Amino acid sequence: MLTDSATLAIVDDHPIVLEGLQRLLSNVKGITISGCFTTGTAFMSFLKENKVDVLLLDITLPDVNGIDLCKEVKSLSPDTHVLALSNHAERSMILQMIQHGATGYLLKNISSEELIACIREALSGMITFSKGAREIMARPSVTELKGIPQLTRREKEILHLISDGKTTPDIAAQLNLSPLTVETHRKNLIQKFQVKNMAALIKIAAQQGLI
Amino acid sequence: MLTDSATLAIVDDHPIVLEGLQRLLSNVKGITISGCFTTGTAFMSFLKENKVDVLLLDITLPDVNGIDLCKEVKSLSPDTHVLALSNHAERSMILQMIQHGATGYLLKNISSEELIACIREALSGMITFSKGAREIMARPSVTELKGIPQLTRREKEILHLISDGKTTPDIAAQLNLSPLTVETHRKNLIQKFQVKNMAALIKIAAQQGLI
DNA sequence: TTATTTCTACCTGTTTTCAGGTATTTTTGC
DNA sequence: GCAAAAATACCTGAAAACAGGTAGAAATAA
């Protein structure tokens, strides 16, 4: 039994989703659900004692964020295949998860057949994506093409203040800087994001969860 | 049977959620699931032929937005109790749904017991919220205190263009308007949102999902 | 058919932002 | 300790945004 049935665990803070996944997967040959968890910490302590072949992982959890959890899982148990299961339909998010060791990325609007197929693919050691996720990967949007620019501490700080409606003189006064310095940071931000003005930048930053 | 068992329909584009809800509610006394739909239009055509006592409605659907659908449902069938079921944990969203006729608002991290209790409450004609939703309602955040201002079609259009980095002259040219007119809309937007400038406005708009 | 909202357009003047640089001093990482 | 990155600061001029109005036409709702 151990040889031909894979163990699967689910981490999701939504009982409804947990129920749905259990129902969908309970009668699938070759897959045994060994645990369902609503928090990352609960799963991690389970993982210390049990072997898990596949983990279906919701990225947005109450206690830890999915990317960090994925990293932890992979360092504790490198053979566990982590399948991110999420509503986040952003390219950057998918890339980040893969970068941190996830074996695949499934959008929550996945169909049951697709879900099972993806789990099988993951078990055989392949990277796998749901249909929706593949589509997103296929068409890098203009804003996401460059990825999220790396911002310095000061730049983030100033971006926040700008998004709160503060003007350059305001910010300079608040941070005890020359207005000219603030202007320089502003310019660098616009350059880094490759946008025309702050309005466009703040939209992207907000959508990317930066502010 | 018609007198003591309430009919319930579910609209959600996530098969997993649909499965979970069906499973959770299938054996509940007094509730009969009469239909599950993944699109708003599919449900609307069902509603024209069938009586639905309670609708569990996911706000984010592929074809129509939940607020509009809720309005449609209530105007076609005022006796249907609409329970919004969503991941949107924003006060403004909850208020908007209630304003448009919803009987309650449930966050998707709701427990099964809570879900059933809420459906029962809705059936008895009461407004109902999940625990999480009640918490959000309890603490109005600073930005959300004023609610989302009602924007006109033109204002939304111009707000979008601004958030794409377009300047007033750009927008005027694109919409065949006087730049002065665009400026007026701009001013009205800033007044409606009670902010100092567009940077602050766009942050709020993005966070509220307006852009 | 009113009344109200929305859309349109105008005016004046000030403030802020943006584009195009250059350049020194701190930090930080190796 | 040295190189690279980050933070600081400066300059000029043009373009855009904002503040504070007013006001007529058009569309919508009551």
TrEMBL record, chains A, B:
> What SMART domains is this protein classified in?
HTH_LUXR, REC
Quick check: keyword Phosphoprotein in the entry?
yes
Q: Which GO terms describe its biological process?
A: phosphorelay signal transduction system; regulation of DNA-templated transcription
Kindly give the Gene3D superfamilies that the UniProt entry links to this protein.
Answer: 3.40.50.2300
Under Gene Ontology molecular function, one entry of this record is: DNA binding
State the superkingdom. Bacteria
InterPro entries recorded for this chain? CheY-like_superfamily (IPR011006), NreC/VraR/RcsB-like_REC (IPR058245), Sig_transdc_resp-reg_C-effctor (IPR016032), Sig_transdc_resp-reg_receiver (IPR001789), Tscrpt_reg_LuxR_C (IPR000792), WalR-like (IPR039420)
**Keyword Transcription tagged:** yes
User: What does the UniProt keyword field contain?
Assistant: DNA-binding, Phosphoprotein, Transcription, Transcription regulation
Question: What's this protein's name?
Answer: DNA-binding response regulator, NarL/FixJ family, contains REC and HTH domains
Q: Which organism is it from?
A: Chitinophaga arvensicola
